[in-house]
Amino acid sequence: MLLASPADMLLAFGHLEVDELTRPHAYARDGEDMTPEEEADARAEILNSALERASGEAASYLAARYPVFARPALPDGAGLPSALVSAVCDIARYRLTGAGTVETDPIVERYKWAICWLKDIAAGKASLLITLPEGEEEEPAGSGDVSISPGTRDWASNGTSGDDE
Known about the structure:
Blueprint: H1 6-21, H2 36-62, H3 82-96, H4 105-123
Helix pairs in contact: 1-2, 1-3, 2-3, 3-4
């Protein structure tokens, strides 16, 4: 499930930056140039892959409070808040840095902000302000916590002393 689209990336960062971020370094063949069609396909694959990874990363935080994000696709009519789309774009932009693209301070700061915001949502300190599909409720923060309780078996009464022999 994509929580941001290639069009969202273009709106957020512009054509020049998206072109720089999706330059297909790894796709170039030895000594051969790519055709314009091959390059366009490679750029689309690179961008979609980054958006898929960023969407998955965001959904992993959101699913703790909003079970709808644990599904492979959002229900029809589920609108996404612009802040979430922006955060996913910032994560994708960060994930696209490397190889020939330099990771700058603003890219790193926006990534850190996005992750911090998603953690706040998961912890119940922030909210997405979305309308959930009918019949679904927001999970209270911490409702998915795991609880471990000790057993009641008395290990000394079964003939073992606990000492290794």
